[in-house]
Model the fold of this input.
Amino acid sequence: MRGMSRRSTTKGGRARGLLQGVAFFATLAVVWEGSVRIFDIRSYLLPPLSDVIKEVIASRALLWQHGIITFNEVVLGFIAAAISGVMMAALVFFVPIARRTVYPLLIGLQSIPKVGLAPLIIVWFGYGLNSKVIMSFLFAFFPIVISTLGGLAGTPEHLEEHFRALRASRWVTFWKLRVPSALPSFVDGCKVAMPLAVIGAVVGEFVGSNDGLGNLILLATGSSRSSLTFAALGAVTAMSLALFAVVAGFGRLVWWRAQS
Done:
């Protein structure tokens, strides 16, 4: 009976949370639409939400065409950042000379504005896919390195002593202890990095591209099509939320490993 009561309470809490979210965004929509109508705001400054929705429907093929390109850039850049970030974190953690040399270099490079690097990336790698993937990679890489490094360093000491008492090899200790302990931190880093990867790809498209949602935003803004601009921005936001949800779902699958 207690188990059934807990499950019903959990379901009730989820339904209540969903309703609260829907009510919040519905209120924002009403405020947006009403404010534009009441204050007679020019559509090129802020189009009504109804016009944006109509534009999304009318331009759905165009948004899909450019959205797929941006999606590919983001996914490739993020995957590269995740793999490279884990490898770099392991290198810095296990190799003392890398901690004294490579790590300060990473921090220094992170302080360089990525928007300032974008024109150089375009010049070096061209207007195609490669430059956008690199921009996405650069935005997402550092958070994954830092979070994974923190996870590796945060392994409980008493568990390390237990593994030493069992005379476990460094590889067994790494795979059976440090990896499960670092997984939650890695997932948190990926949650931070995923929206940044989207931003990186769009920034690259702003600076130099012939397609993608960033390029579509520039074209729509240049032609004073504010509704299309907001529709493209909405597509970018929806993509970021969807990819974040995928990462969060992965996090729920692996979180138990750190608690075992």
Summary: The chain has two domains: 1-41, 47-259. The mean pLDDT is 85. DSSP finds ten helices and no strands in the chain. Residues 221 and 229 are 6 Å apart (CA to CA).
